[in-house]
What we know:
Elements: E1 10-12, H1 16-19, E2 29-33, E3 38-42, E4 49-51, H2 67-89, H3 96-111, H4 114-131, H5 134-141, H6 152-161, H7 166-171, E5 173-179, E6 187-188, E7 193-195, E8 213-217, E9 222-227, H8 230-233, E10 254-261, H9 263-275, E11 280-283, H10 286-293
Parallel strand pairs: 5-10
Antiparallel strand pairs: 1-4, 2-3, 2-11, 5-9, 6-11, 7-8, 8-9
Amino acid sequence: MKRIxxxxxxxxxxxxxxxxxxxxxxxxxxxFDRSSRSFRRQRPKEVMKINxxxxxxxxxxxxxxxIIEKTLGEWLETNAKDSIDRLIQCPAELxxxxxxxxxxxxxxxxxxxxxxxxxxxxxxxxxILRLAPPDAAAExxxxxxxxxxxxxxxxxxxxxxxxxxxxxxxxxxWEIFEAESGSAFVTTDSPVSLYNPEIPPPAxxxxxxxxxxxxxxxxxxxxxxxxxxxxxxxxxxxxxxxxPDPPDEDSKLSIIHGAVWNSRIVNNFNWKMVQLSDHxxxxxxxxxxxxxxxx
Length: 295
């Protein structure tokens, strides 16, 4: 009898349940690899996963080294599936639990992907070099001393950043857009991306800047765009004005629903998502992928 393991080795850094929202009628994703400039067609279970990505080999005795993968899969991703459905179909019926789930899910999806992990390692390396004695820093820059960032650094980053982003998401205005018939949204290996018109991709701006947008495709048909209320109330505000920290209090999400984007706007949104991706882009057809790469 074959033993079924409760510890899957391949961990999705973008959830399979989310990727399934972008499949074609046969349940396949069309994948564009920016690194190799190649296209392929795969099932969601085969895409955006890394061997033992969330496994913490250094976990103390009695602590499951796969606890993050299991928690994400068993609670957050399961609950988020229903909450995203309600956000798309009837946002007025979102409960407080839905709101908490969505804020947590979007924050986690922002920080858990490889692109953010690599950014965190680069920031940590820069910090170490800045604080190191000049002689030591010079030897590192010259390659005489090797400075290696361990894999545990990204877990340290996740622990530090959790809880820092969702207050900003909560203060922003949310708008759900539908793609007109004949067009479709794509998603990427960095599905929660930040965009500011004054900081063009592939650079990503700070979330606290007045004209920073949060892009999050919800499915092939719908996308969520978040923006600071100052964007609407103060037309003269600079794109790079740093806003004050959001208040530490619960508030109801401001959600606008019902606008339809034409294919030109959808393709422009998709193009920005592609530029802000690491290297994988997925959609419901090869034509959709080609359209956003040629915008």
